[in-house]
């Protein structure tokens, strides 16, 4: 896409369907203060990437085009910015780009604004898809003050953020109920939550399932169920959403993240890594595509049922697309 290209990257120069994604050459980025640059091994595909590419995100308007998508990545540090301590070239890490950049991960090199050491227990694909879900889930669980002795309902427990929120809440000692479509119930149970079907009648089903009641509810689905969640917990203040912008009308808080000036959950990455090492945390991955098939990856990520992340695997060397699909 640039004549003086220095690295291979996925990019788009107009908004639209997945087919607007192509691969080409881009100038390589460099690590600024408190940042590291990685040689990318894997980059997750998140809902925000799909919305930014389609032009339907409120933030699409401020994207300079062409744009490299992707907010989450894992790889090997090859450049360390000023004021970074405790990390050096050659370290294997996972993390996310600066939230204000809204992309840059689906490339041969990416600059991370926050990261943690990748434990050997985490595959590159898991690590590449982890950071934003872990940061978001940690921020939401902190804000709800989820801890031992509390019962938490996660609405949308099988998705990227939901599956991570369930595991991190269980690790905090909470009892967790997770909603999902029935074919996802075994998966949700495997994450450590008691599964229950979402949709009409949720409050009654939960009352039968948990006679002692639910203390807190986290909505990560944005499917319009906040009134049910208030009924289930008994108070709007006990409910938090990350995806339903009608929240304030009902007295329910929205966690918008660092762009909204909220304290972030970046500290969750090191905890997730430690839990992975203990066999208590995983990032479900449902498909891996080479970066030169990013359009197929975005199309797959848009299709339900969503149980695990879609991940882009990096090319092995400058400008050489990977051939063949895994997963
Ligand atoms: N505020 C923030 O900081 C922040 C950060 C990250 C993400 N988000 C937003 O949070 C949302 C979730 O992100 P994600 O990555 O977890 O998305 P995802 O992987 O697509 O997961 C969405 C989940 O919602 C479930 N779902 C679908 N219909 C439902 C219904 N009617 N009732 C209950 N659950 C339902 C899906 O289950 P099935 O597909 O199996 O039905 C799936 O588990 C997105 O809107 C994203 O943009 C916000």
UniProtKB/TrEMBL annotation:
<dbReference type="InterPro" id="IPR020843">
    <property type="entry name" value="ER"/>
</dbReference>
<dbReference type="GO" id="GO:0016491">
    <property type="term" value="F:oxidoreductase activity"/>
</dbReference>
<dbReference type="InterPro" id="IPR011032">
    <property type="entry name" value="GroES-like_sf"/>
</dbReference>
<dbReference type="InterPro" id="IPR051603">
    <property type="entry name" value="Zinc-ADH_QOR/CCCR"/>
</dbReference>
<dbReference type="InterPro" id="IPR036291">
    <property type="entry name" value="NAD(P)-bd_dom_sf"/>
</dbReference>
<dbReference type="InterPro" id="IPR013154">
    <property type="entry name" value="ADH-like_N"/>
</dbReference>
<dbReference type="Pfam" id="PF08240">
    <property type="entry name" value="ADH_N"/>
</dbReference>
<protein>
    <submittedName>
        <fullName>NADPH:quinone reductase</fullName>
    </submittedName>
</protein>
<dbReference type="Pfam" id="PF13602">
    <property type="entry name" value="ADH_zinc_N_2"/>
</dbReference>
<keyword id="KW-0521">NADP</keyword>
<feature type="domain" description="Enoyl reductase (ER)">
    <location>
        <begin position="16"/>
        <end position="312"/>
    </location>
</feature>
């Amino acid at each position: 896409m640039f004549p003086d290209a220095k690295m291979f990257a996925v990019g788009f120069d107009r908004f639209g369907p997945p087919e607007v994604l192509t691969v080409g050459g881009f100038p390589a980025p460099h690590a600024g203060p408190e940042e590291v640059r990685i040689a990318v091994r894997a980059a997750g595909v998140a809902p925000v990437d799909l919305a930014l590419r389609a032009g339907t995100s409120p933030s699409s308007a401020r994207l300079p085009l062409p744009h490299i998508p992707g907010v989450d990545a894992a790889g090997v540090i090859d450049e360390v910015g000023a004021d970074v301590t405790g990390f050096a070239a050659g370290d294997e890490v996972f993390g996310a780009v600066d939230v204000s950049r809204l992309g840059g991960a689906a490339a041969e090199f990416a600059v991370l604004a926050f990261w943690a050491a990748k434990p050997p227990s985490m595959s590159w694909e898991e690590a590449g898809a982890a950071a934003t879900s872990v940061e978001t889930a940690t921020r939401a669980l902190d804000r709800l003050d989820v801890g031992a002795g509390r019962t938490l309902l996660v609405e949308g427990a099988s998705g990227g953020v939901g599956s991570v929120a369930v595991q991190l809440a269980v690790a905090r000692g909470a009892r967790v109920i997770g909603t999902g479509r029935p074919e996802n119930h075994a998966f949700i149970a495997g994450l450590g939550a008691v599964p229950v079907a979402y949709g009409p009648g949720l409050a009654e089903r939960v009352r039968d399932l948990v006679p002692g009641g639910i203390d807190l509810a986290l909505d990560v689905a944005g499917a319009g169920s906040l009134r049910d969640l208030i009924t289930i917990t008994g108070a709007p203040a006990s409910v938090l959403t990350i995806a339903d912008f009608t929240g304030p009308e009902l007295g329910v808080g929205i966690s918008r993240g660092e762009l909204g000036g909220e304290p972030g959950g970046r500290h969750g990455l090191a905890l997730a890594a430690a839990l992975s090492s203990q066999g208590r945390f995983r990032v479900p991955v449902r498909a891996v595509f080479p970066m030169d098939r990013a359009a197929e990856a975005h199309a797959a990520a848009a299709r339900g049922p969503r149980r695990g992340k879609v991940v882009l695997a990096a090319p092995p060397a400058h400008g050489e697309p990977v051939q063949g699909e895994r997963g």
